[in-house]
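#help-structures
NK: newbie question, is this the right format to request a structure? protein is Glutamine--tRNA ligase
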Amino acid sequence: MNADNKNSNLSPSSNFLRAIIESDNEKGTYQRPGMPKVITRFPPEPNGYLHIGHAKSICLNFGLARDYDGRCHLRFDDTNPTKEDQEFVDTIKDSVQWLGFSWEQGGTAYVHYASDYFDTLYLMAEYLVEAGHAYVDSQTPEEIAKNRGSFSEPGKNSPYRERPASESLDLFRRMKAGEFPDGAHVLRAKIDMASPNMNMRDPVIYRIRHAHHHRTGDKWNIYPMYDYTHPISDALENITHSICTLEFQDHRPFYDWILERLTETTTLPDGRVIGGFLQKPLPHQYEFARLNLTYTITSKRKLLQLVEEKIVDGWDDPRMPTIVGIRRRGYTPESIQLFCERIGVAKADGWIDMGTLEGSLRDDLDPKAPRAAAVLHPVKLIIDNFPEHLQEECTSPVHPHYPERGVRRFPITKELWIEREDFMIDPVKGYFRLFPGNRVRLRYGYVVECTGYDMDDAGNVTAVHCNYFPDSKSGTDGSTAYKVKGNIHWVSCEHAIKAEVRLYDRLFADPAPDANNKDFRLALNPNSKEVVEAYLEPGLAVARPGDIYQFERHGYFVADIKDSRPGKPVFNRAVTLRDSWGKKK
């Protein structure tokens, strides 16, 4: 991983955020001594595993910082202790690094936690109370919700809204000291209960929560709300461009309100001057469209349901849209970055077809992945006239477009494994593979002619018989004399590597599995996972976990990073060679 995030060869795509940054840079909006002009942040809550939508935000925030010689902070929004855990902190760090980005610059690690600022946030809240911008509300949660109003009706002022600042300050300090149970009081900003923006109707900024925090332990009995913490954290870290998804657009007025209040000073009746916590220029929040990917769900609650109901095999199931899942599936950091570049950044929500993500993986892997032969649904092919103990070496390129990468070597023998679909007793029109009396070429080997087949009592073909033509071997002068339309792959029964191969497909058969409050479980694809015992060419015996190959005809496969081991390989299908779903539309 490059510490300065300079490891991308992608050309930057145009988007409205680039225009904003370039305008700010030209005007010197954030020209500050010794600091970059662009400082972004990626602020996940450590309450679960990141998914492909987060990957877009990571690539956007870290990518913009990289492209404009700035820096990006990793900040954990750990203000809800009942749902957060160190496990999630660790997996988030790992996911950011795996995607190819770093929060380090110039030897300094810019990794932060909202909990780093708890003391400062509390002092600022006391100031807001003393300055008349906040009050302690003693209504029940139900009363607060009822009096908040609706989109068509203004809210009602709390009976505690005009509580004297001294009384609110005393209650707030006692809340901090742990004197009251959860829900007894909250601290609210005093703005406008008649505002058409619901987020400006005296939002709650602190609540009582007697809970153990994974970093601060039992020090705090009150915790700040996200909408209060987020803008202040941005300002304390000198963030320039605070980039959020569109659902936070209506929260921006409060973002600006709280920062403006904290730049001000207030003179109290006793002559004390308080405030002035922040200085301009202040961060500015910008919103972009979140990633809506077809055939996928990204709701944490619904993903958790998939895991808890054992519909999938955990958070890292290769069918999951989590970063740990797509990583195990065989997606590469470069393919995710390529995908994010291709979809760009928009101001309005829209849908991105899953085919775009899969196409990005194909385009990334095609020049990288060495080729290999694999038979996934085997049936035996017996070459009756091939000498019993003869082994002849066949060769093929490691990669057909890069001869400098060398050749693969594997033997052809009397008994081979071929794909069951490569033989038909009664061929359909246009079928050019094996059937009685037809000739095909064994790829990189000989031309053979089918002479018959064996069947069991149930009518299943157990073996196919053929004869070969000794002068037809690929690469020899005689091979040009044979003209055949069919070309099939194979592996030697004696030398093949037996492997478990997991044929993964899209988890859902519906492009919008949870739209309009549908039960997403009804849209599950029954063919999203098939496990087969396959046979691979002998060279794959050296495959290490994480190694990716193109299995000729079948697609791109990765040696499972969790289960594959020497002597017992396990491969996952990352993606097929073509978009078979596109044909179904």
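mod (FA): yep, format's fine, and the tokens are attached above. The radius of gyration is 31 Å.
NK: thank you!
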